[in-house]
Amino acid sequence: MPKKNLKQIQALAHKKYFAKILPTLEKNVQILRKMQQTYQYDIINAVSMHLRDTIQDIESPFIKEADLLLLDWEKEAYEVNQRYPESLRFETDHGEMVRSKSELIIANALAREEMFLYKYERPLQVNHQGRRITIHPDFTVFHKKTGKITYWEHAGIMDDPDYGADFVWKSNLYLENGLYQGRDVIFTYESAEHPLQLRIVRKNIDWIKEM
User: What pLDDT does 40 receive?
Assistant: First the structure.
């Protein structure tokens, strides 16, 4: 075939490749499904809970499943961000006060997800210029199934140069502390001309589910 039909040649090559590996992939799927049905997660979790109750004097348990992390998360107490308490003017569906209508949208969307728990403006210690400082991510999201924590920052006044500069500083701070966008941190943005859309919030929530 002439080179002008390169895309067609590549498509045929891909078709031949996938035709050869498809039976193996199907077998692997069957194996994984059987494993999912027989994997004894409940027993592992029960042992973990027993260890937790019987070796409390040990600083770090040998096994810390997502359920144990969940217990820690639910018991944890923290001091909320004390800056600008007067701006906490918007009440979520479950009675929490947040600082903007967009944060209200995010909070309500997160609260409707059974897979997540979240905390608003939970403090986070990070390194900055050789010292430890405390920042308050807008939302700290806990994935119940995996125990993974994701931070969600919403930039709501990108028209304001000072606000924008501060947000750039904060996003760089995450990176400097090994917290990467799309893996550990989600950023959303809006301006007066381009307000936050619920579909964008939902897309980010779907992304966190897969992280």
Answer: 53
